Amino acid sequence: MIERVSLRAGVDDDLLMVLESESPEPPELEIEAGISIAHVYEENTVVIAGNDHIVIRVLDRDFKVSAASFFQVNTAMAEKMVNHLLTCLSVSLSSTLLDVYCGVGLFSAFFAPKCGRVISIESSESSCEDFAVNLDEYDNVELYEGLAEEVLPGLVGQIANLSYAIVDPPRAGLDKQVIDGIINLNPQMIAYVSCDPSTLARDAARLINGGYKLKEVTPFDLFPQTYHIESISLFEK
After folding, report:
1. Which positions are catalytic?
2. Residue 31 — pLDDT band, cuts 50, 70, 90?
3. CA-based, 20 to 30 A from 25: which of 65, 78, 138, 161?
4. In terms of residue numbers, what domain contains 178?
């Protein structure tokens, strides 16, 4: 049974339909439209028609996004989120940026040319492979493939004077071990990209207890006429 269907639009009007399920059995389809279709189960991808990835353009930069990789479907609002972060995080070539749950590199790609060092963490193998393609041009970017709660403790003591951290977790929010790891790394400012106000509220309380102050929250309506709302919250020491 197909549990989720998503449609992604790329450059030159390319379309990729992603069918997600827990079963390796692909669905039976009659294909008439000239689009790519992929069946994803447990991060395995079976191409039913066309290609296994699409190229999505954000702020005149192209990103390879495979069927099993996460990417914001509303690219117009994704651009606004990127611009908001670039405005709020006053990075320089002396800055070190931590990008947790980096995906295919949406935020890392725009901060890499402005920072001295970008450290990115992602657990999805597919997203990491896309990240390597999308940020291949930068020598100041480090990608750690693994769970954030397992990678972060190993970075303590390896990052001196962490300037900024961006976290873009799934709807479940941040694991307590992730919050503890970030607090131990002691960034000057944390930008929390949230897709669920309830888990944001829980995690905000934990960050505040860890010594941070909530500076501002900016909402972004990526899914108009639905109850879903995304936001970017800024926490600073």
Report:
1. 195
2. low
3. 65
4. 71-236
The model scores a pTM over 0.70: yes
How much of the chain is in helix, strand and coil states, percent to nearest 5? 25, 30, 40
Query: What single string gives the DSSP state of each residue in 20-81?
Result: E-S-SSPPP----SS-EEEEEETTEEEEEES-SEEEEEETTEEEEEETTS---S-HHHHHHH
Q: Is residue 65 part of a domain?
A: no
Quick: pLDDT tens for 80-114: 999 999 999 999 999 999 999 999 999 999 999 99
State the amino acid at position 89 in one-letter form.
L
d(CA 229, CA 126): 26
Residues 171 and 91 in one domain: yes
Are 145 and 154 in contact by the 8 Å Cβ rule? The answer is: no
pLDDT in tens, 64-78: 999 889 888 899 999
Q: Are the C-beta atoms of residues 226 and 190 closer than 8 Å to each other?
A: no
What are the beta bridge partners of residue 194?
231
Which residues, in sequence order, are CB contacts of 221 under 8 Å at separation 6+?
Answer: 77, 229, 230
In a domain, 64, yes or no: no
Cβ neighbours for 204, distance < 8 A, ≥ 6 positions apart: 192, 214, 233, 235
Tally of domains within the chain: 2
